[in-house]
Design a protein that fits this description.
Elements (H helix, E strand, L loop, with lengths): L2 E5 L4 H12 L3 E6 L2 H15 L3 E5 L7 H11 L6 E4 L14 H29 L2 E6 L12 H20 L5 E6 L4 E2 L2 H4 L6 H4 L3 E2 H13 L4 E2 L3 H9 L5 H12 L5
Parallel strand pairs: 1-2, 1-4, 2-3, 4-5, 5-6, 6-9, 7-8
Helix pairs in contact: 1-2, 1-8, 3-4, 4-5
């Protein structure tokens, strides 16, 4: 059976990806910080779908975590055929008042770990002539985000990195996809303290719908997937609006809803 590695698999979109992959017969490597939650999920998927689940408890803010993960899987003879880089988090508030260590951890998880995991597993896929990488970006990738400056910048990196790799591996039998969801009902909004912003008060998608769209797009070999009509419209419109308008609009959306 092919094997898929899903980071941030303990909740939200990552958990939904694990469900979808298991139902398609993929053995799984589930990576997150919460061992108990991962083991409960793994036991359920093994019972329901008959797949083999390997739990990897790692904190991707640790610079050594991607290498240690790749080494551990190699020692166990596990080949990664699909990589879902879902782990990530956001911070909210004026950058000059932010916790610098937290912002740097955000870059380590959203950018550095994603890049290293891709580099460690993508070459093997290309050598075998089959495989897929799905990187979870965001509609944040399409514009700057005042009050979430680092988060928006990291997601722009994920989008552009994924699109570039998609072209590089074209014709090899391997695909790279960037999933760009808008506001989604996961634990993200509470952890990032954005639940009361105008953006999240205007409606969110559910994690299952987002994961299904991304999974379908990955199987179709799409380079970019933006779930939801409103989100696709936003991604389209920002190409034509003045940058000053885009910045100011994004800032208003990140402000708390005072109505």
């Amino acid at each position: 059976m092919p094997t898929a590695l899903v980071t941030g698999a303990s909740s939200g979109i990552g958990r939904e990806f694990a469900d979808l992959l298991a139902s398609d017969g993929y053995d799984l490597v589930l990576l997150a910080r919460s061992e108990e939650t991962l083991r409960e999920l793994g036991e359920r998927l093994q019972a329901d779908d008959g797949v083999t689940v390997t739990v990897v408890v790692k904190d991707l803010t640790d610079p050594d975590a991607p290498r240690a993960t790749a080494d551990a899987l190699a020692e166990r003879g596990i080949t990664v055929d699909v990589l879902v880089n879902n782990a990530g988090f956001g911070t909210h508030g004026p950058f000059v008042e932010s916790d610098l260590d937290r912002e740097l951890d955000e870059i380590r998880v959203n950018v550095t770990a994603l890049t290293e995991l891709t580099r460690r597993f993508l070459p093997g896929m290309v050598d075998r002539g089959t495989g897929a990488v799905l990187n979870v970006a965001s509609t944040a990738a399409f514009q700057p985000g005042p009050f979430m400056a680092v988060y928006y910048a990291t997601k722009a990196y994920v989008l552009h990195f994924s699109e570039a790799l998609s072209e590089e591996v074209a014709g090899t039998g391997v695909t790279v996809t960037a999933l760009c969801p808008g506001p989604t009902d996961t634990g993200f909004q509470s952890r990032a303290d954005v639940a009361d912003t105008v953006l999240f008060q205007r409606g969110v998608m559910d994690a299952r719908t987002v994961a299904r769209a991304g999974y379908r797009g990955m199987k179709q070999g799409k380079a970019v997937v933006v779930p939801g009509f409103k989100n696709r419209l936003l991604a389209f419109l920002v190409r034509f609006l003045p940058r000053s308008t885009v910045r100011k609009t994004a800032m208003r959306l990140q402000e708390p809803n005072r109505q």
